[in-house]
Amino acid sequence: MTFSDESYNLRIELDTKGCELSADEIEDMELDLHTLRNLVADFPVSDLHITVVHHQKARDYHVKTSLGLSGKMLFTGERHHKVHPAFESCIRKLTKKVRAYKRQMRVGEEAEKLAAGTRHDVAPLGEINVESIVQAVGDDDYQQFRREMDVFESSLASRISHWIERYPEIGSRLEHPFQVSDIVEEVFLNAFDCFAERSHDIPPGQWLESLIDPSVQALLQSPDEEYERIQFAKMAMMD
Questions:
Q1: Fewer C-beta within 10 Å: the chain N or C terminus?
Q2: What pLDDT was estimated at residue 114?
Q3: CATH number listed for the domain at residues 2-115
Q4: How much is the pLDDT for 119?
Q5: Burial bucket for residue 87 (CB in 10 Å: 0-12, 13-18, 19+)
Q6: Which CATH class, in words, describes the domain spanning 130-238?
Q7: Tens digit of each residue's pLDDT (9 = 90 or more) over 61-84
Q8: What are the residue boundaries of the structural domains of the chain, listed by start?
């Protein structure tokens, strides 16, 4: 039995050997993944492979999980005479490992940035005319919005370049040969769309940076639609 679910950012592959799982059992397993899904939501790549093996002689189940994140593989395993307890234990272990890995990543990133003397923050190169930006959004004028946000373009492009270097596997999953400038435009387009919902407690540069990952996810999920939107926006800016 093989089951696949790619409806979430966490892609799941389930294989069974020597047994069949009911729809209710699979649904229960899905519910157990809520915390893990949230933990890996900020990873551009998160693939979970679950194997359930029934050992007839031992009369128990061996559940194994492997979670592929960007640049890291995490593994867990557990045995029990019932499937669900074994799976729950595996996911608890996996959740702890993901949390530990994320802490390790944060420590490593901060050390690297401090050593290099740079944090690659998204920051404007000039004055920000907030009033004009708000007016452009209110007028549904993307071209004016884009011109006002141009002070962030260079810094945003640099941040995206470093982001891509960190997750090189993303390039192989994109159907179109997207350039850094395309992702920059996608971020600005998404910023325009959700400007009214932004948090006023977050600096504009940090807010733009938070849109990089969802923008790339949009390119992965709807490449043709997003590519057309990007090219249309670029052509409009040339007029």
A1: C
A2: 46
A3: 3.30.160.100
A4: 53
A5: buried
A6: mainly alpha
A7: 999 999 998 778 999 999 999 999
A8: 2-115, 130-238
